[in-house]
Amino acid sequence: MELEELKTAWEELSRKVEKQDIISKQMIEKITRQQYQSRLNSIAYPEKIATIICYVYAFLLVVNFSRLQDQLTQICGVVSIAYLLIVPMLTLSAVRGLKKVPVTMMTYSEAIQLYARKKIGFQKLQKWNVFFAYLFMFVTVPVTLALLGKTHVNIPRLWMLILGPGTVVYLLFSYWVLKSFDAVLKGAEALISQLEE
Is residue 104 within 8 Å of residue 33, measured between CB atoms? Predict the structure, then answer.
């Protein structure tokens, strides 16, 4: 009788330990998923704010398009509107792709491979964004000046400011943003790596 009771107690203890292991694993996965989302939110929130700013400026350009008198300014206005509408959508789509990686629903190797593909795509997009944003700066200046009732002829040193100090400030800021995003992406990748352990 004692042996039977001991066997029953042992089986019950084994079930409790298995249940606790399952609960612990689920808790770790939930915490990892939350930390992963939180890390990527530090990219997503600034991008969402930038998207709102771009859409507001695009709206202002569309509403005030009639103030763009000459053909060159109108072409610059159309290019600016297209840029302000398309690029934020692409960026938010790339961030959304990163956030949708089901880090706890796949095997480690599947999760890391999918994450690596999404990360590389996002990083390439950001590098192209740096290039196109620099070009956008030159396209939007005549448009902005026209909306303010001025022309680039009225401000003779404007292009020197844009080409000189403006370029340096832009490149330093872009470098800082890319480094910040890379640090966030490496942190998110480290969280996925913890799941292997």
Answer: yes
Range of the domain at 152: 35-194
Report pTM: 0.73
DSSP class of residue 165 equals I
Q: Residue 107 falls within a domain, yes or no?
A: yes
d(C-alpha 186, C-alpha 193), whole Å = 10
For the chain, give the DSSP string: -HHHHHHHHHHHHHHHHHHHHHHHHHHHHHHHHHHHHHHHHHHHHHHHHHHHHHHHHHHHHHHTGGG--SHHHHHHHHHHHHHHHHHHHHHHHHHHHHHT--TTTS-HHHHHHHHHHHHHHHHHHHHHHHHHHHHHHHHHHHHHHHHTT--TTTSTTHHHHIIIIIHHHHHHHHHHHHHHHHHHHHHHHHHHHHTT-
Q: Per-residue pLDDT tens for 3-55?
A: 676 667 667 766 666 666 666 666 767 777 788 788 888 888 999 999 999 99
Instruction: Tell whether 23 is covered by a domain.
Output: no
Cβ partners under 8 Å of residue 111, min gap 6: 101, 102, 103, 104, 192, 195
In-domain check, residue 24 = no
* C-alpha closest to that of 118 among 95, 141, 140, 86: 95
